[in-house]
Design goal:
Blueprint: H1 7-73, H2 76-81, H3 91-104, E1 113-118, E2 123-125, E3 130-132, H4 139-143, E4 152-157, E5 164-171, E6 180-187, H5 188-196, E7 203-207, E8 213-216, H6 223-236, E9 240-247, E10 250-258, E11 265-271, H7 272-275, H8 277-323, H9 334-373, H10 381-387, E12 396-404, H11 417-431, E13 441-443, E14 446-453, H12 458-480, E15 484-488, H13 498-509, H14 512-515, E16 520-522, H15 523-526, H16 538-549, H17 553-567, H18 574-591, H19 601-604, H20 610-622, H21 626-667, H22 674-681, H23 685-696, H24 700-718, H25 723-729, H26 735-746, H27 750-757
Parallel strand pairs: 15-16
Antiparallel strand pairs: 1-2, 1-6, 2-3, 4-5, 5-6, 7-8, 7-11, 9-10, 10-11, 12-14, 12-15, 13-14
Length: 762
């Protein structure tokens, strides 16, 4: 047997690879990103320090220029000159101002030009010469500086393509109303030279407070990128910080610082690619190391998987050789096959175990049944007892015999009786510990349970057995809604006497007929000590017989209840009760099989089919309570007998009435009397008269007169007989008597009747 592919081996190998590779990959990725983050943080920190140094250097120079200019314009020479007009007489002062201006500018200060304007005298001095306002081309631009809100301010020239930076100071100092202006110009190239000295990483830019570019160290950032950078800085409105922004498609790390001295913004822009150049080399090294570790892990995984898979492969091969080809659904992988085979073996084992358990249970029940029937040999009893695992320390045993009282008023029918007895056996098995009983069995529609124990007195035996019986009754009533009766045998010492105990328990149950349903019957309590000679109530039975014969239903029911009460009044043997009931049954059924009079017996005798009569008799013997007996006799015996008696009586009455009517029709023209008819029919007139009246609803004499009247009317219409002849034929001695009778009955004389109906003559 072969599996399509070694799926378990493949999964084991893949799992081993994943277990070994995933940590390596995770560690490599984490290491790379950690190194990347550390390098970027270091570069950002270095850039921040470089930018800070650049800012300090630039501001130091700017402050030096500011300080030199302040000293220059604060000198008495300059202050006094601001009050002089432009005149040749003052040339010596102008020249001294020029010389002093030149001396204040050094090479380190990177000053491009310095101009001093006398606003009142309209003249000025710069690095080149002494001039008047008429000689200045950009005078308007210079005069605009007077309107600045501060007496000292750095401004940017916006008109020129190449930006120029100016330091503007009003003369005298600390005065918003200026007499003169000192303007120092610094070329962008000079500032760019300072920035380029510190641009070791990235580009450094300086912007004024309005984000106008003053100078930068290089041209790496194009105009479009610069606009993006300015927009991002304006959006953030931060004085200092670091952020990343995409400039012209290149991800760039930006560091900015805002100067508290003049509001300029110092910016360092470094490409992330430049920052991560070292990180990429670390990444490649990490990747190579990870691949090497993955390869090593793969080799170890392959070796380990083959080693671990070897037992599975051998097991699958042995199963294939032992069981053959598996079904299609079991070929998913090796463990599916192993699981399928194990499940099959477990199911087989479970079936075998169930069969064995069932057979052991059946054998134990068979053993108990043989004990109850007395078929087990006493010599083999200890061996069997030990073989089936029963308690060996029993010193006594007794039997509980359980029967269902009735199913008529329950939710069950007779077909459920065996199943209900099985359910009761399960309940008994749950209520009584296994060490105190044998397996319950069913016998003669009874559930038999053998109970035993050690060390108890006779009274304790009895109390214990009664307590168990009552507990079983309550439990069955609660769960099955059934009423049961329980017979209890005497405790016996020898196990071989279990058959005797079973007979005693069943014997006790037969006395339920006297004590009623739901009884717990101990054999010694119900079995009579003295034999009663007879329990049949002859007098009450005779009265019941007469009441049934006369169809007096109410009285018959009262007498039936009296008879049953008298039968069970005496404590007798259950067989005597049955014999008394059989005798009463025979007496009543014989009454219903014959007609009342002996001469009509052959015509009315009714015999039940043998099968039906046997069923009724068996049912009588199965009755288990006085209530059942009374209902059964009333509905099954007395009611049918009364119906038969009534039917026979009606048939007899109709027959006699028809015979008497026939005599009247044949002998109406004679001196016919009831006595004569009674003699002819062999009945007494007093019996025949009421019987005829009851059947016809009219008396004998009235019926005879009416029939004679009908015959007279017929003769008057159909014949020419004289009225006197008709009267004579109808046994009237005097025609006048006939005429008076006819007139009384028809309200007309016979002659008038003939005249009225004579045309109908045939």
């Amino acid at each position: 047997m072969k599996i399509r592919s070694s799926k378990y081996f493949t999964r084991l190998l893949m799992y081993s690879l994943l277990i070994g590779s995933i940590p390596v990959i995770i560690i490599g990725v984490i290491s790379y990103y950690k190194a990347y983050s550390i390098v970027q943080d270091k570069v950002n920190y270095s850039s921040m320090a470089t930018l800070q140094q650049t800012q300090l250097r630039v501001e130091q120079i700017l402050k030096t220029i500011d300080h030199s200019v302040t000293q220059y314009i604060g000198s008495p020479l300059v202050v006094n000159a601001m009050s002089l007009p432009y005149s040749a007489a003052h040339y010596q002062v102008y020249n001294e101002m020029y010389q002093s201006m030149v001396r204040s500018q050094t090479f380190e200060l990177t000053i491009n030009n310095m101009t001093v304007l006398n606003l009142k005298g309209q003249w000025g001095v710069d690095n080149n010469n002494i001039f008047t306002f008429d000689d200045v081309k950009n005078l308007d631009q210079l005069l605009q500086y007077e309107k600045l809100p501060s007496f000292s301010l750095w401004v940017t020239d916006e008109d020129k393509s190449s930006p120029s930076i100016h330091l503007v100071k009003k003369i005298p100092l600390n005065s918003l109303k200026a007499d003169g202006l000192a303007i120092v110009s610094i070329a962008e190239s000079q500032l760019a030279r300072l920035l380029a000295a510190d641009s070791r990483i990235g580009s450094i830019m300086v912007m004024d407070k309005d984000y106008r570019l003053l100078s930068r160290s290089d041209q790496k950032v194009q105009q479009s990128g610069l606009e993006q950078l300015v927009a991002e800085m304006q959006r953030r409105s931060e004085t200092e910080g670091q952020f990343n922004v995409e400039l012209e498609g290149d991800n760039t790390s930006v560091i900015m610082r805002k100067s508290s001295y003049n509001g300029w913004i110092y910016v360092s822009a470094i490409s992330i690619k430049d920052i991560t150049r070292d990180s990429r080399s670390i990444g490649w090294v990490t990747l190579i190391v990870c691949l090497l570790m993955v390869l090593i892990t793969g080799g170890l995984a392959l070796f380990g998987s083959r080693t671990f898979y070897q037992p599975v492969r051998k097991l699958v091969a042995k199963m294939g050789d032992r069981f053959g080809e598996p079904p299609e659904e079991a070929r998913a992988d090796e463990f599916a096959l192993i699981g399928y085979r194990l499940q099959s073996m477990l199911q087989t084992e479970s079936r075998l175990l169930d069969q064995l358990t069932g057979q052991v249970r059946e054998l134990k029940q068979f053993f108990v049944m043989k004990l109850i029937r007395g078929e087990e040999k006493e010599s083999q009893l200890p061996v069997r007892w030990k073989e089936y695992g029963y308690q060996a320390n029993w010193e006594w045993h007794a039997i509980l015999a359980i029967q269902i009282d009735s199913l008529e008023k329950s939710q069950y029918n007779e077909n459920d009786r065996d199943l209900l007895l099985f359910a009761i056996a399960n309940i008994v098995g749950e209520l009584i510990p296994a060490e105190e009983r044998l397996d319950p069995v069913m016998l003669e529609q009874s559930q038999i349970t053998v109970i035993g124990g050690a060390g108890a007195t006779d009274e304790e035996y009895k109390n214990r057995l009664f307590a168990m019986a009552e507990l079983i009754q309550r439990t069955v009533l609660h769960y099955l809604k059934l009423q049961i009766s329980i017979g209890i045998s005497r405790p016996e010492k020898r196990l071989i006497d279990i058959a005797v105990s079973a007979e005693q328990a069943l014997e006790a149950l037969r006395y339920r007929i006297r004590y009623g349903p739901g009884s717990v019957l101990f054999i010694d309590d119900v079995q009579p000590e003295d034999v009663v000679s007879r329990v049949f109530p002859h007098r009450a039975a005779k009265e019941l017989y007469d009441a049934v014969k006369l169809a007096e239903r109410t009285r018959a029911d009262e007498l039936l209840e009296r008879c049953i009460e008298l039968i069970f009044q005496e404590q007798a043997d259950w067989r005597q009760y049955r014999m008394a009931l059989v005798r009463l049954y025979t007496m009543l059924t014989e009454l219903g099989q014959y007609e009342i009079t002996p001469d009509t017996r052959k015509d009315t005798e009714i015999e039940l089919p043998p099968d039906q009569e046997k069923l009724l008799f068996d049912r009588l013997l199965d009755l288990r309570s006085q209530e059942e007996i009374r209902y059964w006799f009333s509905d099954t015996v007395i009611a049918p007998v009364m119906r038969r008696m009534e039917q026979q009586s009606k048939s007899h009455t109709k027959k006699i009435s028809d015979q008497l009517t026939d005599l009247i029709h044949r002998s109406f023209d004679t001196e016919l009397t009831l006595e004569a008819c009674a003699r002819q029919l062999n009945y007494h007139p007093n019996y025949l008269g009421p019987l005829f009246s009851k059947e016809k609803g009219i008396s004998f004499s009235e019926y005879l007169q009416n029939y004679r009247l009908q015959m007279a009317k017929r003769w008057l219409v159909e014949t020419d007989m004289k009225i006197a002849d008709i009267a004579e034929r109808l046994t009237y001695t005097n025609p006048q008597n006939f005429i008076r009778f006819f007139r009384k009955m028809e309200n007309m004389t016979p002659g008038q009747y003939r005249e009225l109906h004579g045309h109908h003559k045939i």
